[in-house]
Structure formats: structure tokens, C-alpha cells
Amino acid sequence: MGDTGPEHWDAEYRRTGRVVFPRRRQSLYSWQMLLSWVIVIGPVFGTVNDWDTRGTWFYIRAVLGLILLAGAISTTAQILRGGPVLIVDTTGLHLGNNFIPWSAVTTIGTPVRSFFNSHLPVHLLDEDGDEDELEIPRDNVDDLPSLAAWLNHLHTERQVS
User: In the predicted model, is pLDDT for residue 47 greater than 60?
Assistant: First the structure.
């Protein structure tokens, strides 16, 4: 659903009352993934070359390499499993384990694009009345400006009714 346009999202929303945006497989080829694996590979090569001279730095690099490898494997597994999923329904927004009711949403921000992280900020009020922000990553929806416009449309609909 994340690679289609707002007209498909709106049709699905009107028909079923919800739109599901699973994590796109293209996010596996993101800069974050590439960087995480490059950061893992660098120290591992240095550690393998020092296999014969096991000094303090060898063990530090070995532990660091294992920690980085675990993080890279975890991130890759999360992407391959398809989570977190973005669901927009009549009650609000669900992103992974986070649920934001429409009544808590104050504004839908403009998409933020950076080299490592493109996302759509959704400004909201939490239970204490403090302002907070939910970031919808580009991993779920490729066209963040269209998603922002569509969510703004749904948000104004919810305010009117």
C-alpha cells in the first residue's frame, strides 16, 4: 500500500475503515542498513588480522564487533519481518506498538528529509497535555508529502464530525 497513491489509500479507507502500510522491502537497501553493515565489517577485518597478537585492543575490537553485528542482524531481521507496520484507521494511527487516537493529533507536519532519516512528524498531545511527536518513517510510505496531505484531509474530517 505504501507504493500506491492517495486515491488508493482513500478508496481502501472508505471501503474497510483502515489502511495498512507494511514496511517496504526497499528499506532493506537504505543508507542506515548499508552503514550498519559497513560499520560491522570494518572492525571485524581488523580483528581477524590481529588473530595472532591477542592484546587488549583485540578483545575490545572483538566485543565491539559482536555488539555491532548483533545490532546489524537485529535491524535486518526487523526489516525482513516487515515491522513496524503503519495502520491508519477510523480510531487513529498505529505505528508498531504505538497508538495515537485522532483526538490526540494536533497537526500533521511537513516531511523531513535528511541523508539518513526521512520521516513525517505527527504532532500530538499526550495524556499529560504535553506536546509530543510521532515520526512516520519513509520505510512504510515512499511518498511522504502525499501521505501528509492525505492524513491532513482525514484529520480535518475527524475534527468536523
Answer: no
